[in-house]
Structure formats: C-alpha cells, structure tokens
Amino acid sequence: MEGKVEQELGSQNHHHHNHPCVEISMEIHKVETPPKRSSLQKLKNRLKETFFPDDPLRQFKGQSAKQKWLLGFQYIFPILQWGPHYNLNLLKSDVVSGLTIASLAIPQGISYAKLANLPPIVGLYSSFVPPLVYAVLGSSKDLAVGPVSIASLLMGSMLRQEVSPAQDPLLFLQLAFTSTFFAGLFQASLGFLRLGFIIDFLSKATLIGFMAGAAIIVSLQQLKALLGITHFTKEMGLVPVMSSVFHNTKEWSWQTILMGFCFLVFLLVTRHISIKKPKLFWVSAGAPLLSVVVSTLFVFAFKAQRHGISVIGKLEQGLNPPSWNLLHFHGSHMGLVLKTGLITGIISLTEGIAVGRTFAALKNYQVDGNKEMIAIGVMNVVGSTTSCYITTGAFSRSAVNHNAGAKTAVSNIIMAVTVMVTLLFLMPLFQYTPNLVLGAIIVTAVIGLVDIPAAYQIWKVDKFDFVVMLCAFFGVIFISVQEGLALAVGISIFKMVLQMTRPKTVVLGNIPGTDIFRNRHQYKDAVPVPGFLILSIQAPINFANSNYLNDRILRWIQDYEEEEENIKMHSSLRFVVLDLAAVSAIDTNGVTFVQELRRVLEKKGVELVLVNPVGEVMEKLQKADGTHDLLQPNVLFLTVGEAVSSLFSSMKGVSSSHV
Fold it and tell me: Would strands 145-146 and 392-393 be described as parallel, antiparallel, or unpaired?
C-alpha cells in the first residue's frame, strides 16, 4: 500500500490525553465484489469442501482408461500399491516385527477376551482374521491390529447390563458378535459416506482423560485375578470395586498375590527398560509371552491350581469357526446391540486412526482417514462372521511393531500366521496358564494409556480443556465408561457453542507513526483516534450471536462516551468502524444485525463504516441492501487505515468550513 502517515499531536490533545490527531494521505483502494456464481456452483463447492477435503479424484486427472482402472483398484486395495515393489529385505524386517507382535498378541488376545467376558479363545480368533483383512485394505505401515483393552472393556460392561456372561454365555457371545457387526458397518459407512469429521468431536483432552480413566478401571478389574477373589462385583466404578476388594479379604490368596506381584513387577520393569531405550523394544515385547510360559510351567510343575491359583482351563483347538449364524438381528436386545456397536465402533475407530496417524507422522507418510475407516469397518464386519469381536489398531502393539522395524502391513500377515499356528497346534499348552498372569499383562498394557506429561501440557495451554479432561477422567472412574465419555463430549460441544454464541470483539487503536491498527488491549502503545470507535469482530456472524454482538457494540459505544466525558474531550463519536476481515460467514440474522445497527447509530448521529468484508459476507450484504446505504463507497473501505484517513480528512474539512 502506498501512503505516508504523518501524525501531528494537536497541542490541546497532547495537553489532555495524548490523543493523536491523525493526518494520513494515502491512496484509497476500492472494495471488490466477488465474481458471480450460481447457487448450484456454491452448493457444489460447499459439498466438495465438506465431504472431499482431500480431493481423492485428483490422481485420476489426465490418465488413460487402463491407468484409471489400475489407480482405482490401488485406491481401494492399498496392498496393490506397495505389493509389486515388495522384496526380501523388507520381508526380513517384517518377519522380525511380525513374530515380535505375535508374541505380544497371543497373551494380550487371551487377556482382553476375558476383559470383555468372552471365552479366551475368541481373543485369539480376533488376532487371526482381522490382521489379514487389514493388510489388504489398510493404508498404515505400522498399525498392528487386534483386540484392544478399552473396546473390550466397553463391550463387556455394556452387554453385561442386560445379559449375564456366566448364566447365558451363548446369548452373550451372539450379542458380542452382532455388536461387532454393527460397529464395523457403522465404521465402514462413516468412511464410505466420508463423514470422518464425526470422530473429530473427540478432542485430544477428552481422549486423554477418557483413556486414563478407562486404564484405571481396567486395572481395578484385574484385582480379581491378582488377589484371587472369586466373588467379585459386576460393577465397573471405583467405589463398588474397592468395596468388593476389601469386603472379600478372606478370599485373598497369598500364593496368588505373591506370584501375581512378582510377574507384575517383572513386566513393569521390562516396560520401563523399553521406554528408556527403544532399541531394546524386544525386552518389553517378549516379556508377556515369557511370563505366560514361566507361570504355566510353574503351575504345571507344582500342581499350583490345587493351592488356590485359578487357571484358564481347557481351550478349544482349531481355526475360527464361521459365526454368521450367531448374528442376531431381531429380538429384545436389538437396542442394546446397536448402542454397544455405535459406542465401541466410535472409540475403537478413534484409537485406530489416532495410532495410525501418530506413526505415519514419525515416518513421514500419509494415512487416509476415510480409507482407514473403511478398512477397520470391513475388518470388523468380516470378523463378526468369523468368531471375532471388535478389533482395531492397538497402541502398545503398534509401538512394538514400529520399534521392531516393520516396513509394511506384511508384519500383520506374519502375526496372523503365527496366531494360526498357535490355534492349530499350541492351544493345549495354555491349559495351566494362571489368570493372575493375564491380569498382570493387562495392567502393564493399559498403564501406558495414563499420559501425565500430556495432561500437564493441556493444563499449561488451556485450562478449559483441562476441565474437560478431568470430567472425562472422573466421569469414567465414578459413573461409568460410556457416561464419562458422553459427559466429556457434551462439555466439548458446549465449549464450541459458547465460542460461537459469545464471539470476541476487540477495540483497535492506531500504532503511532504507521497506518496499522491493532487490539488496544494487546498493544499498549496503540492509541485511540478521536471521533472513531474501531471494533474488530472475530467470528462468523449468525443467528446464535447477532443479538449478543448488538448488545456488546452498544456497550462499547457507552464506554467510549463515558471515557470521553471523564477526560473532558470534546470530540464526540462520529464513526463506528467495524473490521470484518475475520468474519468468514454471515446469515440472514447477521445481515439484519448490520442493518439494525446502522439505523440505531444513525439516530445517534453516528455513521457505521464497514472494512474488508470477505466474499460471501459482501455478497449477502449486497443482496440485502436494497437502498444501497450499507455499501456506499464512503462507508466501505479495504483497510482500517484507509477508512480512518479518508473519513478523518472529510471530518476536518467539515469542521474547518464551520469555523
């Protein structure tokens, strides 16, 4: 912008309150109206930005028909992208990482199935089919797929509200598979209909609080196994679990406590070693399997199951039986199944995509959110027909996979093959595995979900987010997992609504010696211009906030007039300048608000001046402005500096002609 700004401080102004008398000579630029577009074009653009922000069809432009088909198949099945370039070096890395995560997946699979009140074997079934499906459809190279603690806990606790897994195990299993089917259907349709922004409602603060709360709930559930209690509460909350633990002290078994404590300490120490030295990832990855082997041998050798140490018992051998005949699409439990599917689906999807994105960022590649949703969804739909319950990308397993040097999704295939061999030949070996080891494995796995440094960071940056996090945390611990989550999401949405309905308005002042206008609260040397009240509105103007803005602006005017009276200034208010640069959108209520404000100010003898309205706002104001009062050239400017310089000189001209 051309222009020089001379500021003469009028002697009398200087005398009173350091008001500058601004004299600016500069070129005035016209505010352009945006090019005309039909309503259809606008709608098309809006839909594209809503559903296709990543523009997935960009790669097809200018390709031959054959190439388009190939790209299409590669888009649907990412395995076709990296498969042709696969070589032996990559395979070596993938075999190592695949075997490493299998050694973790086998004990975790059995443990998490017990957490969901399902037969332990279902946990292994769920570590066999889903990884194979994901390897074909998934776009993450590091994600290791299988059952996860939080989704297992959610499914177990929600279904247990209506059906007892002890009294009616078959019905419980049917409901678990059906919930998984609906969860998968929901996840895949979110990706297919490109509605991924729905899971963005789980903010980082909500997730950190929720995960930490759930980790504590999951750990408390393990007290049953670690203390050897037989009559344990069916509730999930902190209070019922603790009262159950201390009411049943006579059931505590010292053998179980001693053995469980030893394994828990061993697992926590190995975890600590791997965190401190990521190169030693195999220490924490192999520890659970080693614990299972050692404890099983110990129980077998000393016949410890006769001395109060409870064991898993006999497990079936063989691969996943088909379970499509167990899916239940009618009857009285339909509502429960849909609700469970929806909630476990959203939570496991959020976890899977967050994990995928975390490792993609570390290795500098892109993960397509919508593709991931479809992959995880299809994986669960297929899983529900092959005796698997809900699965997703697990954080602990993916971290091990990443540290073990996984290069592609083949590590998932290697893991699945290892689990298959286990299912076919090694199941009888788990007969004497004590439950306390599974408890210790779960506690060690979920303790990583309590992220204290992240919580401290949130406290430092945003206190409101910290409150949201605490609500999620205490809600999960004291009320229940789903209600805690709902509470936190509710508060996050309330925060968004609050930001919409109470947008920020700030008073701008001139930085001396320049034509720059900035927030007077932030820039202490910015000074007011006599006769001008310059306001910046920093949000879209719509039905939710137009009344508030109206009241707030009238209050600014009152404040201005009081301030002028206090310092005995005689420059009464002549112009209210609204800087609309940050107003990205406006609706009919917003337009009415601008028109009404102009009328109210006119009665007071004050002129309303608009600065830099963006395309959409300008267009709507033009259409509504039948008399062309709002957008006359003398009340519409490109920058605040130009507005003030132009109006100030006209004001001077008027006042000098009156003398």
Answer: antiparallel
CB under 8 Å to 467, separation ≥6 — which residues? 491
What pLDDT sits at residue 391?
97
CA dist 605 and 575 (Å) reads: 9
Task: Give the strand order in the sheet containing 636-637.
Answer: 517-519, 505-510, 532-537, 575-579, 607-611, 636-637
Gap between the Cα atoms of 149 and 107, Å rounded: 13
Q: Whole-angstrom Cα distance, residue 568 to residue 651?
A: 20
Q: What's the pLDDT band for 14 if we cut at 50, 70, 90?
A: very low
Q: What is the pLDDT of residue 15?
A: 38
The torsion angles phi and psi of 169, rounded to 5 degrees, stand at -60, -35
d(CA 95, CA 525): 65
CA–CA separation, 211 vs 218, rounded Å?
10
- The span from the CA of 593 to the CA of 370, in Å, is 40
Whole-number pLDDT of residue 291: 95
Q: How far apart are CA 265 and CA 277, in angstroms?
A: 18
The one-letter code for the residue type at 479 is I
CA dihedral 142, 145, 149, 152 (to 10 degrees): 160
- Give the Cα separation of 105 and 96 in Å (integer): 14
Phi, psi dihedrals of residue 24, rounded to the nearest 5°: -125, 130
Residues 6+ apart with CB under 8 A from 456: none
Q: What is the mean pLDDT of the chain?
A: 88
Measured from the Cβ of residue 648, the count of other Cβ atoms closer than 10 Å reads 20
pTM (global) more than 0.70: yes
Q: 648 pLDDT band (50/70/90 cuts)?
A: confident
The single-letter code of the amino acid at 278 is P
Beta pairing, strands 607-611 & 636-637: parallel
Q: 628 pLDDT band (50/70/90 cuts)?
A: low
Cα 489 to Cα 46, 206, 348, distances in angstroms: 26, 7, 16
| C-alpha distances in Å from residue 393, one per residue of 279, 347, 659 | 22, 11, 79
**Three-state secondary-structure class, residue 320:** coil
Report d(CA 619, CA 631) in Å as an integer.
11
Strand pairing of 517-519 and 505-510? antiparallel
Q: pLDDT digits over 515-540, tens only?
A: 999 999 999 999 998 889 999 999 99
Tell me, letter by letter, the H, E, C secondary structure of 46-90. Answer: HHHHHHCCCCHHHHHCCCCHHHHHHHHHHHHCCHHHHHHHCCHHH
Alpha carbons 399 and 380: distance in angstroms, whole number: 22
DSSP string, 542-600: -TTTHHHHHHHHHHHHHHHHHHHHHTT------EEEEE-TT---B-HHHHHHHHHHHHH
Q: Which amino acid is at 210?
A: F
Contact 396, 104 (CB under 8 A): yes
Whether 579 contacts 508, CB under 8 Å = yes
Residue 583 has pLDDT above 70, yes or no: yes
642, two tokens:
């130009």
Closest of 150, 118, 186, 234 to residue 485, by C-alpha: 150
Distance CA 346, CA 230 (A): 33
**CA-based nearest residue to 393, from 204, 138, 128:** 138
Sign of the Cα pseudo-torsion (184, 185, 188, 190, in order):
negative
Give me 248's structure tokens: 């049943």
